[in-house]
Amino acid sequence: MKLGIEGRWALVCAASKGLGKGCAKALVMEGVNVVITARGAEALEATATELRTLNPNVKVVTVAGDITTPEGRAAAVAAAPQIDILINNAGGPPPGDFRNWTRDDWIKAVDGNMLTPIDLIKSVIDGMTSRGFGRIVNITSAAVKAPIDTLGLSNGARSGLTGFVAGLARQPQIASRNVTVNGLLPGPFDTERLQTMIANWAKRDGKTYEELAEGRAKTVPARRFGTADEFGATCAFLCSEHAGYITGQNILMDGGSYPGTF
Ligand code: NAP
User: Fold this and answer.
1) Rounded to 5 degrees, what angle do the CA atoms 87, 89, 93 make?
2) How many other CB atoms are there within 10 angstroms of residue 27's CB atom?
3) Distance from first CA to last CA of the chain, Å, rounded?
């Protein structure tokens, strides 16, 4: 299936590694020009080189910076002639006990995982509605649907974003203009983030990485972690011309972990 988005421009935030990179790869393979961001310039440039090799016919622009800052967002948005596709992504907040979290911890989480994507949506959505095409995908977490007790900052901030988007996506002046806004909710995916968490648990429990990884994967009905390429492919479909009737949805990719019928 051709996705019908060749020649469009996408801003893929936090895309030098992991899920953001998976999304950038899938879009580039469909002929989409991309602006990719991350704080670390070296990994970002390496990813850009990889993307250009995947498809030499697209433009790949890098913007090194922190997407959770106003300057980082302004530079990212300014780097494309127009933004037809926005993939919102950033690092997740740390785990912990809510008794220890200060107001500043909460502000940081809400800023990074709720206000940052909302601000980027605000920057691009009127251009999308005026042109009659727009796709916005917010990378959130399975924790939005099934909260993880130690990830309260993530549960809270991402649920705030999800609630806001649920209303926004359904505004007729947006939905009737072929502009969609959806959430993509990862369960466990084999990225650097998950690998680091598993390595920490292994150290804590005095076990090997392999033991911990195998044990965690066994808790997933699919008996494995997801891959960034699988994630990217689903993201690219949501950005395709075929997905114009899917909006305000939260699509869970978790290998069957969520136990509910709906
Ligand atoms: P990852 O492998 O650690 O990759 C994170 C990427 O985001 C890197 O390119 C990183 O580059 C960039 N980044 C982080 N903070 C940034 C910032 N403030 N500004 C710009 N770029 C930033 O992580 P991942 O697994 O892909 O996770 C992506 C998101 O999905 C996170 O919010 C995570 O919490 C969520 N998630 C992941 C899983 C999973 O199993 N992997 C499950 C549920 C939710 P720099 O560090 O150089 O900036």
Assistant:
1) 165
2) 31
3) 28
C-alpha 137 – ligand 1 centre gap (Å): 15
CA gap 30, 51 in Å, rounded: 12
Q: For tokens 């390496």, what's the residue?
A: 46
**Cα of 101 from ligand 1 centre, angstroms:** 21
Q: Is the CB of 207 under 6 A from ligand 1?
A: no
The alpha helices in the chain, defined as continuous H runs, are 18-29, 41-54, 70-78, 103-110, 116-131, 152-169, 172-175, 192-205, 209-218, 228-238
- Ligand 1 atom nearest the C-alpha of 187 is 42
User: pLDDT tens digits for 188-240?
Assistant: 999 999 999 899 989 999 999 999 999 999 999 999 999 999 999 999 999 99
Q: How confident is the model at residue 137 (pLDDT cuts 50, 70, 90)?
A: very high
Measured distance CA(177)–CA(134) in Å, rounded: 8
| Secondary structure letter of residue 150 according to DSSP | G
Q: Are strands 9-12 and 33-38 parallel, antiparallel or unpaired?
A: parallel
CA distance 209 to 244: 42
User: CB within 8 A of 94, min separation 6: which ones?
Assistant: 153
Around Cβ 146, how many Cβ atoms within 10 Å? 16
Q: Report the atom number in ligand 1 closest to the C-alpha of 113.
A: 32
Which of 139, 118, 236 lies closest to 183, judged by CA?
Answer: 139
Atom of ligand 1 nearest to the CA of 39: 48
